[in-house]
Specification:
The chain is mostly beta strands. Helices cover 3% and strands 48% of the residues. An eight-stranded antiparallel barrel has the order 16-17-18-19-20-24-25-27. An eight-stranded antiparallel β-barrel has the order 3-5-6-7-8-12-13-15. Strand 16 and strand 17 form a beta hairpin. The protein is elongated, with a radius of gyration of 32 Å.
Length: 601
């Protein structure tokens, strides 16, 4: 399992220079990659590079151990993963190892010999040819050391005195001899290691990859002529059926180079409901935007969508691997203590759960909700790293692909804006001062009138006084929040407001004797806007003072819209007694207005 070092802002300072140590060879920034193009190997002009599988018995080994990864020109200590192919020649003496370094996969083979239980591999064998530099990356063995140049701190490998690398065979395992290192070491010590490495032959400089403590464990025996890579099926074309678009919100945890975090997200998710009971979801992970689909089934009785795990959602033919949608979890473990800053040092782990065979969603009204996911962006660090939900793993190594989505709520968007439920007018605080600010507190709705979740960013509101007089937020009092006088306050203002917030408004001058702001009641109305269409709630009032004109003014707190009736239609426009499958629901209210939405039952 790959271990990923957590680099938060405070810890970056604690790690100091080790977090920015570069490999000396700047070519590593340009040339290092997880899998190189095989055609580049073929362009090499050396007769020594072995680019095709040699004759003999092929055995596959699972890699374990530790490694220094120079991807992007910066060193990262991590653990080995994936598999290693070894061919045993018919003569019983010669052996061939493909991609001997875990982080430098080019498909090339190196040759060695077996004597008893010892494998000896001569160094200097070519792993890759780069036509741009007309140079080779070759196999070596050495120890890393620090190097300073023009104020920069680099890391290099000293391979002086080494001519061969050796391994010891012990049953079904093969161990690298003479290596040392510990990725769990803290600070600069994490980069001091001895092991199998790669370097540029023309400039005698490290390429940025080194394996130590390598153990290869046999997992299976392949035939002499193995089948080509089995390319999994990827659904790239939009399936037939009814396409609905949902506005998706939720949270996910991620790791990328020198950064780990947890965040909220929102985007759109397309779902196709087919006539045969199948369902398809496009881009099931929020950060995956390649347009591919995964297939599942939809049970109309329970409203459950089931997506089988293990479906391929991306495939890179040039590299021979892709991403599988699975169910997984992440967690942190303490690996040390930073005595300079008196705080723990953590590593982030991620793994998939092979026992979970399906990802489930609940369809209810116009919403789709991920089931069983766990996580909280507001949990304290490092507890927010304990998440469970759909994620991706690589097809070849089955290793976590560094993102996990733990919560999702999708709200249908193609039916137009919802009718928001009424807000509540909660309380009034009177400052008792002519020049002070009183406070009107309220609660904005989180659902529409049918109880379905709504997107708070589409909400806005207005404040009303006495006999439905709309209140103006003028720049004289509200200069922190508005640049011009306003009567409708959008989400962008109240979500980060100073005097105008999502649960209260400060009202100035409420106790002016000659010019009171209002004499009786204060209220609030909310608006829900999608595109150019807006639906609104009723005005909900709070009586603050006795009504000065009880005979002429209406003294009530509006109770909201009342439903007069609901009718259901299928997509062909035929009325149905009850909703079934994809349904068009038309709600009529006592005030004569209607609301039309698409729902899936």
């Amino acid at each position: 399992m790959k271990k990923i070092f957590l680099l938060l802002a405070a810890m970056t300072l604690a790690i100091g220079s080790s977090a920015s140590v570069q490999v000396k060879s700047q070519r590593a920034i340009k040339n290092h990659r997880p899998l190189s193009h095989n055609e580049k190997i073929a362009r090499g002009n050396s007769l020594n590079m072995i680019t095709t599988q040699p004759e003999g018995e092929l055995k596959v080994y699972k890699r374990s151990g530790q490694t220094l990864d120079g991807y992007g020109g910066y060193v990262t200590p991590t653990t080995q993963s994936g598999e290693c192919n070894i061919v045993y020649a018919p003569d019983g003496v010669t052996i061939y190892i493909q991609d001997p370094i875990s982080g430098y996969k080019t498909g090339a083979w190196v040759e060695g010999t077996i004597d008893g239980n010892t494998i000896t591999v001569p160094l200097g064998q070519e792993l890759e040819y780069d036509s741009y530099y007309d140079a080779y990356v070759v196999l070596t063995f050495g120890t890393t050391y620090y190097y300073y140049d023009n104020g920069g701190k680099y890391i290099e490998v000293d391979d002086t005195g080494y001519e061969v690398a050796s391994f010891t065979i012990d049953g079904n395992t093969i161990r690298l001899n003479g290596s040392a290192g510990d990725v769990y070491a803290y600070g600069d010590d994490a980069y001091i290691a001895t092991g199998l490495a790669a370097k540029w032959s023309d400039v005698n400089s490290w390429s940025g990859d080194l394996d130590m403590l390598t153990v290869l464990t046999e997992v299976q025996t392949q035939p002499d002529d193995p089948d080509p890579i089995d390319v999994p099926t990827v659904i790239s074309e939009t399936p037939e059926g009814t396409l609905l678009t949902y506005h998706r919100t939720g949270g996910y945890i991620y790791h990328k180079f020198l950064e780990t975090g947890i965040t909220e997200f929102e985007d759109d998710m397309n779902v196709v409901f087919a006539e045969d009971g199948k369902v398809y979801i496009q881009n099931p992970i929020t950060t995956l935007t390649n347009g591919n689909w995964v297939a599942g089934t939809y049970d109309q009785e329970t409203g459950i969508i089931s997506i089988p795990t293990g479906q391929c959602v991306s495939w890179m033919a040039n590299y021979g691997y892709g991403g599988l949608l699975v169910w997984g979890h992440t967690w942190y473990e303490q690996i040390g203590w930073d005595y300079d800053y008196d705080e723990p040092v953590y590593w982030l782990y991620g793994a998939y759960d092979p026992d979970v065979t399906e990802i489930r969603y609940q369809v209810e009204g116009n919403t789709i909700t991920l089931l069983d996911g766990q996580g909280d962006v507001w949990a304290p660090y490092p507890e927010w790293g304990n998440t469970t939900g759909p994620c991706l793993i690589y097809t070849d190594t089955k290793e976590w692909a560094n993102v996990l989505q733990f919560s999702t709520v999708g709200v249908l968007t193609d039916q137009g804006p919802a009718v928001p439920a009424n807000p509540t007018a909660d309380s009034w605080y009177d400052c008792g001062d002519e020049y002070g600010a009183s406070i009107f507190s309220f609660t904005l709705p989180t659902t529409d009138i049918n109880g379905n979740p709504i997107n708070p960013e589409n909400l806005s509101y207005s404040i009303y006084l006495d006999d439905d007089e709309i209140f103006t937020f003028d720049t004289f009092y509200y200069y922190y929040d508005v640049e011009s006088d306003m009567t409708v306050i959008p989400y962008s203002i109240y979500s980060n407001g100073y005097d105008i917030t999502d649960d209260a408004v400060y009202i100035y001058g409420t106790n002016y004797c000659d010019w009171p702001i209002f004499t009786w009641r204060i209220g609030i109305k909310v608006y829900y806007t999608v595109g150019s269409i807006t639906n609104e709630s009723d005005i909900v009032y709070l009586e603050v003072y006795p009504n000065p004109n009880p005979g002429t003014a209406v003294n009530e707190v509006n109770a909201g819209k009342t439903i007069a009736g609901v009718r259901y239609y299928n997509v062909a426009g035929q009325e149905m007694a009850e909703p079934q499958g994809l349904t068009i629901q038309v709600t009529t209210f006592t005030d004569g207005t209607t609301s039309t939405v698409k729902v899936v039952k």
